[in-house]
Amino acid sequence: MDKLFRVPSMQALQALVRVADTSSFTEAARQLHLTQSAISRQVQQLEEHYQTVLFDRTSRKVALTAHGREVYQVAQEMLKSLRALELRLAPPPQDRPFRIRIFVSLAVRWLLPRLSSFYAINPGLCLSIETVSGETVDTGGDCDAYVLYLPGGLDERPLTPLFDEYLIPVCAPELSGGLAPPRSLDELAGHALIHGSTGRHEWTLWLQAQQDQTERSYKHLLFNLDDLALDAAARGLGVAMTDKVLAHDALARGDLIVPFGEALRTGGVYALWLRDSGVTHPACQAVLNWFEEQVEQTTRPASVPG
């Protein structure tokens, strides 16, 4: 008779995956609601099981060894398969919210003003909106869908495209001190450039696309959120560079105008990515249909003044 195969603990495999993903025993313990010592014991059990070291603990960050990466790949696939099986056999109840993670500025400027229409069409469904303020949306956690920004365009994942990124300059119809909006690059030099990120990437990209070789000196006003930058622009503090979708409603109301210049298509894309829990959620199709309708209304050419 073949020797009985001894299977490692699933809890230990889950601990290994979480430590590897976070590069931290402490963070893995927090996410799994365990003590750090408990996580360490589980990893130690795996190392004893496979009779090899799975983590290199000598560097500043915890890192997998070569053998650790092999165990990680198998463990990750096992956990993914078990999660998918659970979702198929026990689909989420109708009353569980459909959870969406999205950039805070996109949530405030585009999603929130349109949510009432979703509930008008789907009174029995509930959305749970989670916002992030960084430059990327972390696809970890337990959300059902994620609105991602992909600077290089769509990748190999099954994504639902939402918007192409178009950068436009915007400002108030009248700036502080009664100044008129700039009508050219020469006049722009007399106003502050408002940035929605400290990297100043958007203004740099747009100015380079103007193919103007004149040396100019600009004043800069930096924020870490597009929402704050647009608010500052609406208050007349300068000219902001932003995506036209974020500025769509303020432009339609007349709170902001495009003083001059053309929209620049960067190649970046906003897209919706569904986890397995989102695909099997009863609200999935309703959410996809609603997003499609709202995107069509927002990107309709006549909706945004040039």
TrEMBL record:
Signal peptide location: none
Keyword Transcription included in the entry's annotation: yes
UniProt key word Transcription regulation: yes
Every HTH lysR-type domain range: 8-65
InterPro entries, sorted: LysR-type_TF_proteobact-type, LysR_HTH_N, LysR_subst-bd, WH-like_DNA-bd_sf, WH_DNA-bd_sf
Keywords: DNA-binding, Transcription, Transcription regulation
Family stated for the protein in its record: Belongs to the LysR transcriptional regulatory family.
Protein known as: LysR family transcriptional regulator
Organism: Pseudomonas schmalbachii
